[in-house]
Amino acid sequence: MSTKMIKRLILWTPAVTIGIWEYVRHAFLLPYISMDMGNILAPIIVFIISMTLLAKLFRIMEDTEQKLHEEKRSKALLEERERLAQELHDGISQSLFMLAVKVDRLQRAPEEEREQQLTRLQGAVHHVHDNVRQAIENLHMKPEETEATWVELFMQMIEDIKAEAEWEPRVEWQLDDEEMTMKEKLTLFSCVREALTNISKHAHATEVQVSAATIDDGFECKIVDNGVGITEDPFQQPGKYGLKMMRDRVHNMGWTLSLYRDKNRTIVAIRGG
Fold this sequence. Notes:
By secondary structure, the chain is an alpha+beta fold. Helix content is about 65%, strand content about 10%. The two termini are about 40 Å apart.
């Protein structure tokens, strides 16, 4: 039974009860029950019917509200788990990948270069440690509290990519982000970082370009590389958690995400408005 129907029954029950009682009294009971006695019995009958029927309806309403509360709580827990997964993937997972790259380089480095590679590896370990601390702080941070660091975050990401990858991304950032909320900025930042990390991991690219510009109905951001590309739908492949989270982020913002090949180049395009 729906909540709407329960409310209607609660409103109608006393009126219907008193109506039925008055009809029965005048049609059948007038010879046996006086007018004064009938007036006394009317509220008693309404009270008994209300206590019998309405008490059950109130219990149903309470159960419905309890289930709704539990569903909201479960949804909140799922959203928090998703947020935790995004924080772990965006910060810690990607930092550990960069650390693994440095370890591989150290193992392959000639003896005379190992001291230098070891110094870089130590720096990377400290960087991972900082990322873990930052991720923990971000879990307690409201989005608006990071507004002052938006440009710093983006430029630091580009510098990290330059330091670790075999290519240097060309950046053409002409996006007028004054009209964007902090949530939109951080979502776009996370998507760009995910795309660049995927290129570094899988594409074997030598040229990468990141561009963003304001268009009539919003903005468009593209990440283009000349790597090996995609042979099938990456969103259907097992283990592609980063791409799936990127897609979910974009869709949750009401944006569109396109991933396609054009003239031996892979293009990730995000459009929002």
